[in-house]
Amino acid sequence: MDRVCIVEDEKSLADLIALNLELEGYEVMVIPSGRKAIDMIPEMHQFDLIILDVMLPEVSGFEICKAIREKHTIPVLFLSAKGTTEDRVAGLKLGANDYLSKPFDLEELLLRVQNLINLNRKEKVSGVIIGNKKINFSTFEVDDLDFKTRLTISKKEKELLKLFIENEGKVISRDELLDKVWGKDQFPTSRTVDNYILALRKIFEPNPKEPIYFHSIRSVGYKFTNLTS
Questions:
Q1: Are 124 and 162 spatial neighbours (Cβ–Cβ below 8 Å)?
Q2: Are residues 104 and 10 in the same domain?
Q3: The sheet that has 214-217: what strands, in order across it?
Q4: Total-model pTM
Q5: Which of 124, 147, 174 is the last residue of a domain?
Q6: Which of 6, 20, 81, 143 shows the smallest number of beta carbons within 10 Å?
Q7: What span, in angstroms and rounded, lies between the C-alpha atoms of 76 and 50?
Q8: pLDDT digit string (tens) for 90-140?
Q9: Is residue 229 domain-resident?
């Protein structure tokens, strides 16, 4: 499930946006002030999109966007009552991906959210580097950038990798991995998932016995964290 963070001090508007995003299937978190948003920046890698009001108390949306860009590449969509060309240009120069003036059409907002998340998902899986390995999903090849060697991964390994990359930082259960990679018409077991994770660790982890990318979450499943990104 894609996660959206709304940074908005106007409660009624934040609640309206959150409700409609949840109805569209997104998981939503609302941050009501600029100061709290600044405090949350180290954890913002868990979101797929930030919807950011410009005119916030204590810390402006422009300052927050600048701070986000120092740490993350998450898409940022500005919302602002200030819709002049100068304001839009200022926001985009700070690294925002889109800018929507208030008042706005709710359907347009939802469409922009969907487009930004889809674009972010595509960018996540193109030319991905994990440690010293670079993945080419088109050719199923993984290049070792240090030793200049190359190996080929299987279709299931590729699909698992793409799913983990698209959901970086999120815990994915074994059941979800089985459903999304193997489908409901096949009947592998959770041990099948475990074996594939072991194979990915052998490819990408410096020490497969002490994984830093593919983490086991006891009694639940796995979480992928790319320290290279």
A1: no
A2: yes
A3: 171-173, 221-224, 214-217
A4: 0.61
A5: 124
A6: 81
A7: 5
A8: 888 888 999 999 889 999 999 999 999 988 777 666 668 899 999 988 788
A9: no
